[in-house]
Structure formats: structure tokens, C-alpha cells
Amino acid sequence: MSKPKIVVLGAGYAGLMTTKKLAKQLAPEEAELVLVNKHNYHYETTWLHEVAAGTINHNQARFMISDVVNPNRVRLIYDSVVKVNKEENKVVLENSELTYDYLVIALGFVTNTFGIKGMEENAFFIQDIDGCQLIRDHIEYKFAQYKNSEEKNDDDLTILVGGGGFTGIELVGELVEKVPQLCKKYDIDRRKARIINVEAAPSILPVFEKDLVAYAKESLERRGVEFMIGTKITECTEEGFVVGDDSELVKAGTIVWTGGVTGSPVLSESGFELNRGKVTVNGDLRAPGEDNIFILGDCAWVMNEAEGRPFPPTAQAAMQHATTCAHNIAALLHNEPLQNFIFDDKGTVASLGITDGVGTVFGGTKLTGKPAATMKKVVDNRSIFLFGGVNLLLKKGKVRPF
Amino acid sequence: MSKPKIVVLGAGYAGLMTTKKLAKQLAPEEAELVLVNKHNYHYETTWLHEVAAGTINHNQARFMISDVVNPNRVRLIYDSVVKVNKEENKVVLENSELTYDYLVIALGFVTNTFGIKGMEENAFFIQDIDGCQLIRDHIEYKFAQYKNSEEKNDDDLTILVGGGGFTGIELVGELVEKVPQLCKKYDIDRRKARIINVEAAPSILPVFEKDLVAYAKESLERRGVEFMIGTKITECTEEGFVVGDDSELVKAGTIVWTGGVTGSPVLSESGFELNRGKVTVNGDLRAPGEDNIFILGDCAWVMNEAEGRPFPPTAQAAMQHATTCAHNIAALLHNEPLQNFIFDDKGTVASLGITDGVGTVFGGTKLTGKPAATMKKVVDNRSIFLFGGVNLLLKKGKVRPF
After folding, report:
1. B175 contacts: CB under 8 Å, gap ≥ 6
2. Which of A314, B19, B153, B274 is most exposed, with the fewest beta carbons within 10 Å of its own?
3. A13 SS3 class
4. Touching check for A134 and chain B: CB below 8 Å?
């Protein structure tokens, strides 16, 4: 009998970590390992806002998969997943097909525009490395064009960010670092360049308590961010957002939407039952009714049974999914009992630029200012260290002065 | 009686050097000095192709005028010149007016499209710092857009350079350095990005002898530049150049025109008699029929009487104009005889990227390859040194490895 074949789809936080753990826990004769990913690199999704703002180089936010996974142990396939054929235990890729005995679906998220008219066509998304390089270049190009235009339109210098959640706020936090640099580079009056954050809910950063939210808002406002909170976007045009009941048009040269995400479209293509775009998995992280398919990371809702709602879909959770998933696949191979996922919440920190931030760590300790910014870098570096050890940390770690 | 007032228009090679020499040669009680310039900085026009390609930072190619001219000795006015009113000895600026006793017009060049249809609207020009930053950003933006587009159009990666003279060839020389970097940055196959130079004349670099031209062409072709020589551009559209008798459309994402220059439009606004856009000045560099107006640099044709044609309009010549002009203004103040301009040709070197070049120096010695590239940097550094001494050389000099 041939070895069981374990196929992991996606080399994000969940998929790459699952692959690494499987390669460590299973001997080569026990199982064949395959990792499928669109690119030959992994990128740190939680750093993408920095690539988009241009405050870090895009290469810092990615590393070669073959640098952290041994290609002699794991077959690496760089291709896009079209769909999973559950009945035949088969994965359809753009350029080939693949059978599996065990499947891990960790294909991450795509941006969700909630059907807001024109958003798909006119806004940029914080979604991948290529797209975030385009945002960075677009902003800079707008500044250069402004400088060279005869009849200057100050709106060209406005950057509009839809969504006041984690990504939206961390993005404006980087933009307040970047915009003054751009103004200097292009000899433009800093006061002409606006950064506007629009959020429909009554507060930004819903994940944090009120005092931290107030701190974050005040810190960003002091450095020039304008907030439009409790403001619903009804449409996105080429020129900007249409907001509120009077359909006011807020014009901008750069429009970014960070207001929502949903699981990979491969899930619906493959016939999984979806709940707000993701699959609500069993406690052992398997898809309901499937013995050999695990779904992790941003493709999954993992229920917090104690609180009756899903755990938050974060990078931290995704990497912990990997531990449970790898354990459970090994358990299936060894006919041992499976574990249920338990989230070990190490805290959450949002950066507000290079030297500021807000967060809650160590089970409740609140941080603001430089300590929060420092902790954020510790968090970012931890992920890099877990993937690639000291060598990768030295190459990609965040050792910016603060 | 009040002191005579000397007004210099333009802080390019000719104007800035004239001002420095006058400040040195004339005591404060002898004459009032005024320098008018559009920006508060001087830029090295002969380095602009590097800014456009993105191979040097734009700040390296400029320096603050107040760093090299003493504002206590020279009144600095940052404004644009509208026209000169010769009858009233007055200069009209955008925001004020200015009288003069002696005037130096050194307002440089603007790009000449020779009336080629659509060129003004659709091509970028190598003309000033702002415009060259825009070219750099435009090229990069095209690469980022290409990477993010679903249906990729390889033409977006093509850079089309019209004109095979000095600027055009030096620009493609920088682009062959830059394009591979961009391909790496955006994960794009190098072979998809084209650099095309189009020249109507039967040869590029008409200033050099045949063997040097052949060397330059072969060196650039080997590194991926495509030449269309003896190819006339009949029109420039949004998509590219229309060339030749069959009206072939050469498509590109970036279109730059370097095919010609003409003197500042202020000359015609002020009623000077023009010859191909410039004023043919007397041997002493004064405008014909004007006792107190000198015209220098790219605004002037200075006749080489021995050869019956004008001296080439180069930065080297412009800086030598300054020496003659400053001497002659001092001579007028002191009632001494004026000198005629004599061009001291120190040679000409064109760069072909960072480590290659062609040129003729020391009255005929031909250089190619690294020696030429080295000599080019010596030439570039010399100008910086002449303006700002060792301090400026250390700040802005070219000490790139070669």
C-alpha cells in the first residue's frame, strides 16, 4: 500500500505552519506531503498595510517558501487552486490536478465589499503583495502628477481609507508616517495632503475597549488623520466615496477599502456550506461531514463554545490552528483520538505608525504609546521566528528604531 | 547716485555661475546683485536622465541656491519670469516687477517637439526635477499595474524614447540599469520589458565619430536596447509613436521625447529676434543692439567664427559663458574693454549606464567603457565642485562604485 498523501492548500500563516509541523512530526515513510501555493513565497498578511503605505520594503514582508520548508521532504507546487472535488478526493489546479488522502484548506481571505456599488472597480484592497505595491506606487504617482499639473487639484493628494477596523487603522497609522515624507520629496505643502478614515460603525477598532480606542483616535488625529465615524459609504466612484444620507461625495486621489474580508472563493466553488463566506468547522477543525478535510485560518469559523461565538480570525489564531490540525492529522494516521482547538489568546496590539500603538496583552494588561509599538514588533518578529528561526529573523525581522 | 543693479535671470549652469563670479569680482559697494529663479534650488540638467530613470535620487541632482550663494550679498528672488521689458529696463515676474541696470538672461531651454502631432500631450520630457520624478514614478506604476492586471498587455512594460541624441542615449543607458531592478521588484520576466530608442537621423549621437557611435550602439543593444534608426516619428498618440512611411504604431506604456530643445519662451515674449528659438548673441555675449543685456547658456547661439557655426550648447559651454559674462559686466562698470567668448573644449563624454560610456577628451583622445564612465563622473563632480566646493561635492558628488 502506498503512503497516505497529505495536501495543504495555501502557504499563509495556517497552511505554512501546518506543513512545517507535519514535516517535523511525521517521518518521510509515514506520509507524503504536498504544499500548493499561488506564489513561491509566503507573505506576512499582517504587514501588508506597511507595504501599501511604503513604510517597509515589500521584500521584508515576504520570504521564499523553499527557505523554510525542505523541498526534499515536501513537494512544492506553485499554482492557483480552482476547486476541491470532495467526492473524488481531488484538487483542481489551474495547470494540473492532484489527489489527496488528507486535505488542509488554508487559502486565506479575499476582500469583501458587501456589495457597495463601485467598490470592486474603484478601490484598492489590502490583499496581497502585488496589490499593495500598486497602492504604494499609486499614492506616489498621484503626488508626482499633482506637482506637475498646471491646475492643481488638492483632492489628488487625499488618501481615503474605508473601514476603521484593524487593517484600516494600522494603514492610516503608516500613512501619517509616509505622507510627510512624500510631501518633502515632491516639495508639496504638508497641509494639502489629507488622510481620511471612514467607518460606518459608531467606533473604530471594535476589538478594543473604549479608553484604548479613544487613545488611538486622538493620537492619529493629532498627526493629521481625519475621521468620519458612524458614516456609511453608499457608493464608491472613481472620484471617491459617496457617504451619509445626503450622499456627500468625499473626493480622493487614492481610495482603499479595508472594511471586510471573506473566505477564499474556492470554498463555494467546492460546494462547502458557508456562513458569511467561511466554513464553520468542527472543534477538531474538520469541515462538517468530512473525515479527511481540515479548514483553517481565514477560511474557517472556529466556535468559542464558552462564549457562543467564533474566535476572532487573526494570524495568531491561524498559527494555533496549524498546531491542532497537524496534531489531528498525525492522530488520524496513528489511530489516536483527535483534539479540539482551544485558542490561547496572547493579546492583540495595533500599531499606529512606527512609535505608537494600542493593545491588550498578558490577559488584560493595556499598552499604549511606545511600549505598544515595541510589543507590536515583538509580535511581528515572533511569526518570522516561528517560520524561519534566527536566520530568517535576522533577514526579515523588524528592527526599526523606536 | 545709487549703485548699479545687476539682475541675473535663471540659476542654471550659466546664471548661477555668473552670479557667483560677480559676487566674487565686485565689491558690495560697486553693484547690487539680484538672482531670480523659479525654484529655491539649482539642478544639474545633465543629470536629469538619471532622475527620470530612477538610478539616482532626485535630491542628489539638486542643491539649495542659498547653500552656494551668500544671501547677504545677492538678493534671491524665487519667482517665474514672464517677460523682459527692454525699453524700460524692467523684468516682469509672476508676482512682482524688477528694474535693472544690467541684465543676464540665462533661462535655459524648453523641450522642442518640432510640431510633431500629439507629442506635447502624450510624451514626457526631460526638462526639470518635477517632471523627471513623474517619469520615474510613471514607469514604476506601469510595472505595478501590469503585475496586478488580469489580462496583461506586455506593451505596458515598453519604454519608448524618442531622440537618439545625448539625452536620449544617456536615458536608455540608465534604463538598462533600472529595468532589470524593476522586473525583480515586481516579479516580472525581464524579457517582457522593452526599451526602444527611435531616431530620425541616420545615426545616434551625432556629436561623436563613427567608431564611438558604433561602440555605444552595440553596448546598449547587448544589454537589451532596441534601436529604430533613420525612423521618423510622424505622430505621438496615447499608445505610442506612429513611425515611418507605413505609419506603424510602436506601442509603449511610457513615452519620453528627448529629440530637441529650444530657448526659454521668455525670449520671444520679450521681443528678441530668434534663430531656431534662441538669440544669436554678439561675441561679448550681449544681445544684438543691447548694451546692457547678456544672453547665456541654452538661450543663446554663440558663433564659432572660425567654423562659421555656433558652438555646441552644452553645460560646459554655459559655465564658460558665465566667466566671460561676469568679466564683461565688471569691465562695463570699470570702463574697460570687453572680451569675446572663446570656447575651451575640454571634451565630451556620454554615459551608457553606470559602468560604460563613450567620449572624446583632452583634445581628441577617445574613451570607451569604464574609463569613459569614470571620466563622466569626473565631469559631473567638477560642476558640483565649481558651484559648492568640497562640501557640496561630498554631499552631492557621484561616488558610485565603478
Report:
1. B53, B159, B161, B195, B225
2. B153
3. helix
4. yes
Residue A116, CA distances (Å) to A60, A113, A120, A329 in order:
33, 6, 8, 40
Chain A residues inside the 8 Å CB shell of B58: 185
* Residue A42 near chain B (CB below 8 Å): no
Per-residue model confidence as pLDDT tens digits over B80-114 = 999 999 999 999 999 999 999 999 999 999 999 99
Neighbours of B314 (CB within 10 A): 18
Of A6, A119, A122, A17, which Cα lies nearest the Cα of A382? A17
**Residue B159 near residue B148, CB atoms below 8 Å:** no
Cα–Cα dist B397/B379, whole Å: 10
Distance from first CA to last CA of chain B, Å, rounded?
57
Q: Which residue of B has its CA nearest to A133?
A: B144
DSSP E strands in A68-114: the ranges are: 74-78, 81-85, 90-93, 97-99, 102-105, 109-111
Give the Å distances, CA to CA, from A377 to A190, A193, B91, B174, B338.
28, 28, 58, 38, 69
**Residue in B32, B44, B50, B170 annotated catalytic:** B170
Residue A307 three-state SS: coil
Query: Which is the catalytic residue, given A32, A44, A170, A177?
Result: A170
Q: Does A38 touch chain B (CB under 8 A)?
A: no
Judged by CB atoms closer than 8 Å, whether chains meet at A141 and B145 is answered as no
| Residues 6 or more apart in contact with residue A348 via CB below 8 angstroms | A207, A208, A312, A314, A316, A359, A360, A361
End-to-end CA distance of chain A: 57
Task: Quickly tell me which residue has 496589490 as its cell.
Answer: A131
Domains for chain B: give ranges and CATH numbers.
5-38+79-111+261-344 (3.50.50.100), 119-257 (3.50.50.60)
Pairing of strands A102-105, A293-295: parallel
Of A130, A138, A186, the CB nearest to B141: A138
Query: In this predicted complex, what is the ipTM?
Result: 0.73
Q: Residue B269 catalytic?
A: no
Q: Chain A closest CA to B215's CA: distance in Å?
A: 36
Structural contact between residues B204 and B164, judged by C-beta atoms closer than 8 angstroms: yes
Give the residue on A whose Cα is nearest the Cα of B41.
Answer: A187
Rounded Cα distance between A227 and A236, Å, is 17
What is the C-alpha to C-alpha distance for residues B360 and A207, in angstroms, rounded to an integer?
69
CA-based nearest distance B141→chain A, Å: 6
Tens of pLDDT, residue by residue over A239-274, are 999 999 999 999 999 999 999 999 999 999 999 999
